[in-house]
């Protein structure tokens, strides 16, 4: 569930979206394809995603801002972005942050 990221600094791209439920039939397939493609991108560190029927948040982690820009301009990702704007999303937001600190907690079983 949680991405094994290196010690900071690195970058996080936070993508929050509200799906158009009437036009999102093929969304899941493309979302899976985008993760598989991102995993092959230089500088990709991992991603975490949560989705309900109507909204979702995906946080992807990257080594540098240049890596994020290359991903933004990936030709297949461009196609997904365009389809998102014309069909899948009623709204979305994108935030790019530099991660300076991180902490993790896992409850031990017992």
State the gist of this model.
The protein has helices spanning 27-38, 65-72, 75-88, and strands at 10-19, 44-51, 55-62, 89-99. With 110 residues, it is of the alpha+beta class.
Written overview of the protein:
The protein is of the alpha+beta class. It has one domain: Alpha-Beta Plaits. It is built from three helices and four strands. It has a four-stranded antiparallel beta sheet. β2 and β3 form a beta hairpin. α1 (27-38) runs antiparallel to α3 (75-88). It is globular, with a radius of gyration of 15 Å. The model has no long low-confidence stretch (mean pLDDT 93).
How is the secondary structure organized here?
Elements (H helix, E strand, L loop, with lengths): L9 E10 L7 H12 L5 E8 L3 E8 L2 H8 L2 H14 E11 L11
Could you say how many structural domains there are in total? Answer: 1
Order of the strands making up the biggest sheet: 2-3-1-4
Helical stretch tally: 3
Radius of gyration: 15 Å
